Amino acid sequence: MAFLSDTLARVKPSPTIAVTNKARELAAAGRDIIGLGAGEPDFDTPQNIKDAAKRAIDAGRTKYTAVDGIPELKAAICNKFLRENGLTYTPAQVTVGTGGKQILYNALMATCNPGDEVIIPAPYWVSYPDMVLLAGGTPVPVVAGIETQFKLTPAQLEAAITPKTKWFIFNSPSNPTGAGYTRAELRALCDVLMRHPQVWIMSDDMYEHLVFDDFEFCTPAEVEPGLYDRTLTCNGVSKSYAMTGWRIGYAAGPLNLIKAMGTIQSQSTSNPSSVSQYAALEALTGPQDFLAENRTLFQRRRDLVVGMLNKAEGVTCPTPEGAFYVYPDISGCIGKSTPSGVTITNDEVFASALLDDTGVAVVFGAAFGLSPNFRVSYATSDVLLAEACARIQRFCASLV
User: Fold this and answer.
1) Tens-digit pLDDT profile for residues 262-274
2) 93: left (phi over 0), alpha (psi -120 to 50) or beta
């Protein structure tokens, strides 16, 4: 009898976490490392949010809470959805979890049966397919390449839907590409989904507030009210509010789904951290002016990185609409060799050789379902980004 579960054979550790850990280990060993793998802002949580957490501790709000969130936070989430997205939910339609990842995981665990298919546009966040597999479903990646700016077309979505399709996972702006769907582009996808009433929509809106230029964010249930009863609109405070370590995600959707997700959570983690919930309450109800300031900061970093990477030999880097990632194509580097004789056969070899030769840590594209590419997180300082991109330029120039 095997000791470990067969489930482990269906999943793999997160490549983004692996890259970040390796970069930390090398830096601890004395290497000059610039880590561009972690998807988290480099600045601190706003002071008013930290102060709210301290007040919660001092007030003794350190006990168990309701499994899927305190009433005050649920009310604030309802207000957020109405104010920013034009979506009306009751607190009973809201669930709060230990980060956005748990929200998605709970929904999949509560709904997927063997044989159920989940459509996932690729490139995708690394965790989507593995969470589907853990839940017993079948991930169906659909590649949206650089020729469509990494955006799924209505024809591709239509072709991927079968009688077994249960979910369509939608992420805009996207991790790893930063691609954002315009209202017209999302409208076209919604038109397809309206023709297939068995398909539910899981909208991962985590990067909602990180959009640039004149791009306007929108979400499926907002664009097509006819999808409201089969859409789970997911969000969190991790990225926009610089609260990655606080671990608070949330979602709103149909009551029966939210109840089922609560059942899953009641037998796994139970409630999210009480202190983190009060911090998230302040994030959603307190001053929001810093969001615009952060957008300006990230847009400047985006422009810096895109400009420098497009000057690297063999690299093409599209300009994303949001998030804090770019996803350059390295087709022009494949088949070449490093000065030490390493042949760049794929993007994983590229990323490994780049780290070994220059100390720049990036995540290879195969982890996100589309090669040959790599992901850069530009959620770090301008100085480090400029130095990292200069090293990437020199590395690419050295290939023969």
Assistant:
1) 999 999 999 999 9
2) alpha
Mean pLDDT of the chain: 96
3-class SS of residue 40:
coil
The token pair that represents 128 in the structure block = 């989507």
Q: Are residues 91 and 153 in the same domain?
A: yes
Residues 374 and 249 in one domain: no
Radius of gyration over every alpha carbon of the chain, rounded to an integer in angstroms? 21
Kindly give the parts of the chain with pLDDT less than 50: none
Report yes or no: 253 and 222 within 8 Å, Cβ to Cβ.
no
| Domain-ending residue, one of 285, 306, 329 | 285
155/106 same-domain check: yes
Summarised one tens digit per residue, pLDDT across range 14-29 is: 877 777 788 888 889 9
- What pLDDT digit, counting tens, does each position of 300-344 carry? 999 999 999 999 999 999 999 999 999 999 999 999 999 999 999
| d(C-alpha 297, C-alpha 93), whole Å | 35
In this predicted structure, what is the pLDDT of residue 354? Answer: 96
66-111 tens-digit pLDDT: 999 999 999 999 999 999 999 999 999 999 999 999 999 999 999 9
Instruction: Indicate whether 81 and 198 sit together in one domain.
Output: yes
How many angstroms from the chain centroid is the CA of residue 196? 26
State which residues form the domain around 241.
63-285
Helix (H) or strand (E) holding 141: strand 138-143
Q: Which of 285, 314, 331 is the last residue of a domain?
A: 285
Q: Are 204 and 170 in contact (CB under 8 A)?
A: yes
- DSSP-derived secondary structure for 149-196: TT---HHHHHHH--TTEEEEEEESS-TTT-----HHHHHHHHHHHHT-
Q: Are 325 and 378 in contact (CB under 8 A)?
A: yes
- Closest by alpha carbon to 40, among 236, 305, 220, 263? 236
Residue 201's CATH number: 3.40.640.10
- Return the DSSP state at 140: E
- Which helix (H) or strand (E) covers residue 252, if one does? strand 249-252
221 exposure class (CB count in 10 Å sphere: 0-12, 13-18, 19+): buried
Prediction pTM value: 0.95
In sequence order, the 6+-apart residues with CB closer than 8 A to the CB of 394 are 358
- Any idea what the CATH number is for the domain that residue 392 is in? 3.90.1150.10
